[in-house]
């Protein structure tokens, strides 16, 4: 029981890291609070659902299409709203409200387009067998999703630490003005970050029917708060710290579901609240934000 | 002081409208809900408009007040009015316990308050606490049901809320709060007790939500945890305030009249279209009119009460 709880916590932890990492990338680069994050996850989930039911498409294939589609979408969204927002008096607060409005728009459109019903994908779409890890049996789909999540996180790290654009991205994260004066095109870097951030959210959405359960147009709100809990645990603005947050969240969620199931929905909020009060900069945060 | 009269006029007209409203248009529930949302919007206004802290989890206080008042009525057999006051006091205590949230800035505070309200919700609605809160099965106050009296009590709460906002709009304290919102460090150097001011506004705002929650529970008499902890309650109140413009008495009133009118017109039959409209509205407001409709009049040099 203990080994199973820990291992499934780690598998889900990898998935939750993937779910939250895009939110952190966007916050880190442009200090924008994307309250519509969960709704992009929902859109990814519906993409997977329709691709599977209409064309019998494997979610792993859908993932590739969704990734590029949402990069374009994110870039467009960036140029549409962010430069204007950055000129305002308090961009961080206004971005919170703006993306909240966007979240309402996406949810409303999704209800109009998809209806209010719960949907689910046949869980065997990602493999129906049982995988044994350290003597414990897990659903194959969990292991596949965890492996893909790990791969995606490694690719994000390679992007941030080993490509020219990624190094520029980290420069913008550390100091916007200095990066601009060093000749980095802040807008281009930010547009890519927005695109990649939304694309990662949508990919997480593609796999959500296998990890979270049935999907519906209003599922985004809870996922947004969960993602926030994860990135704040790991520290805001540090995408790699998200992995720590995801693991802690996955482990505590699995622990609660095994031993105190009726209290398990309290976990993300409780963790978020404790971390915010004890160490608002997150477990890996170095600088204190003005509190 | 001429401005003070203007605020008094707005206050009286609003209260009068709600006092005689049910004779003009007999849908009492609509009038009652309008009062609930207006009082909550002013509660948000007191916090967000004057201090810049936007509490997404404001509904937590509303639900706390509703549950506390109901439990005082059913378990302690208190008079409903005393129970509602108790609901306000309970929300005040919860606000006091949550006041460390004010150490957080901007977005962190909003998300932290959201987490706090969800924690209260999941605790109250937890099946493990069924003996105390009746868990997910809600509360039943039918033994105390009295629509006429609860309407009057709500009107009194609204009057208190509007008066509190009008006071902040024209008093030195409101001015100090707005100075704190613009630049906390300079305000502190000018001798304003920043932390104490903020906590006062936060507790006032929490108490208002608790009182409103209590009156709402009494009026509706049967409710479930997801009725009184519905995030949409926060959202409505926030949008009404943002639409009209914060830090004024009139802004949230205008926001409530326009948007709640819109809601009654199309929102009830087709909620998703209403959600779409107010989503688009929020985006447009942030991009083009971040200080609300009232800022248009302010720009023309008209002093909005």
TrEMBL record, chain B:
Membrane topology label: Multi-pass membrane protein
Q: Which InterPro entries match?
A: ABC_transp_permease (IPR001851), LivM-like (IPR043428)
Q: Which Pfam families match?
A: BPD_transp_2
The entry's cellular-component GO terms read: plasma membrane
Q: Does the UniProt entry include the keyword Transmembrane?
A: yes
Q: Give its localization.
A: Cell membrane
The terms under GO molecular function for this entry are: branched-chain amino acid transmembrane transporter activity
Q: What are the UniProt keywords, alphabetically?
A: Cell membrane, Membrane, Transmembrane, Transmembrane helix
Question: Membrane-spanning regions, if any?
Answer: 80-99, 144-168, 199-221, 233-263, 275-297
User: Which protein is depicted?
Assistant: Amino acid ABC transporter
Can you name the source organism? Ferroacidibacillus organovorans
Q: What phylogenetic lineage does the species belong to?
A: Bacteria, Bacillati, Bacillota, Bacilli, Bacillales
């Amino acid at each position: 029981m203990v080994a199973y709880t820990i291992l499934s916590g780690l598998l889900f932890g990898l998935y939750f890291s993937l779910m939250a990492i895009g939110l952190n990338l966007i916050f880190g680069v442009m200090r924008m609070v994307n309250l519509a994050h969960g709704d992009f996850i929902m859109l990814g989930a519906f993409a997977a659902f329709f691709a599977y039911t209409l064309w019998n498409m494997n979610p792993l294939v859908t993932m590739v299409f969704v990734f590029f589609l949402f990069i374009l979408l994110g870039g467009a969204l960036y140029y549409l709203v962010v430069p204007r927002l950055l000129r305002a008096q308090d961009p961080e607060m206004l971005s919170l409200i703006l993306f909240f409005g966007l979240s309402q728009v996406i949810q409303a459109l999704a209800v109009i387009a998809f209806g209010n019903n719960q949907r689910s994908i046949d869980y065997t779409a990602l493999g129906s067998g049982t995988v044994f890890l350290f003597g414990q049996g897990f659903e194959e789909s969990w292991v596949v999703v965890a492996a893909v999540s790990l791969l995606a996180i490694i690719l994000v790290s390679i992007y941030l630490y080993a490509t020219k654009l990624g190094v520029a991205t980290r420069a913008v994260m550390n100091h916007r003005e200095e990066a601009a004066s060093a000749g980095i095109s802040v807008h281009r870097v930010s547009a890519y970050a927005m695109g990649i951030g939304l694309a990662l959210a949508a990919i997480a959405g593609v796999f959500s029917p296998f990890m979270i359960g049935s999907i519906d147009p209003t599922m985004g709100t809870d996922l947004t708060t969960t993602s926030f809990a994860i990135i704040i645990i790991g520290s805001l603005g540090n995408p790699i710290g998200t992995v720590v947050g995801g693991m802690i969240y996955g482990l505590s969620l699995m622990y609660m579901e095994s031993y105190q199931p009726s209290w398990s929905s309290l976990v993300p909020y409780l963790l978020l609240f404790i971390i915010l009060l004890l160490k608002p900069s997150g477990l890996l945060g170095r600088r204190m934000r003005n509190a | 002081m001429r401005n003070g009269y203007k605020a008094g006029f707005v206050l009286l007209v609003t209260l009068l409208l709600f006092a005689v409203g049910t004779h003009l248009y007999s849908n009492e529930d609509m009038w009652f809900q309008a009062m609930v949302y207006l009082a909550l919007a002013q509660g948000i206004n007191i916090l967000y408009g004057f201090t810049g802290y936007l509490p997404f989890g404001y509904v937590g206080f509303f639900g706390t007040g509703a549950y506390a008042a109901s439990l005082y009525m059913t378990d302690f057999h208190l008079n409903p009015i005393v129970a509602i006051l108790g609901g306000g006091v309970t929300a005040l205590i919860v606000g006091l316990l949550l006041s460390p949230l004010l150490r957080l800035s901007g977005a962190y505070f909003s998300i932290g308050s959201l987490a706090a309200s969800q924690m209260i919700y999941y605790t109250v609605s937890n099946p493990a606490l069924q003996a105390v809160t009746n868990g997910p099965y809600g509360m039943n106050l039918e033994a105390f049901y009295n629509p006429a009296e609860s309407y009057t009590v709500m009107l009194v709460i609204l009057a208190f809320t509007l008066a509190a906002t009008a006071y902040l709009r024209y008093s030195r304290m409101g001015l100090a709060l707005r100075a704190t919102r613009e630049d906390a460090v300079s305000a502190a150097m000018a001798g304003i007790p920043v932390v104490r001011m903020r906590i006062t506004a936060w507790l006032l705002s929490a108490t208002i939500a608790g009182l409103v929650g209590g009156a709402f529970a009494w009026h509706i008499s049967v409710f479930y945890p997801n009725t009184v902890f519905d995030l949409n309650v926060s959202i409505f109140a926030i949008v009404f305030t943002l639409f009209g413009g914060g830090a004024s008495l009139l802004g949230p009133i205008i926001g409530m009249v326009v948007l709640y009118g819109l809601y009654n017109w199309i929102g009830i039959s087709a909620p998703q279209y209403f959600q779409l409209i107010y989503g688009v509205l929020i985006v447009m407001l942030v991009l083009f009119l971040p200080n609300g409709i009232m800022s248009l009049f302010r720009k023309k040099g008209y002093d909005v009460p």
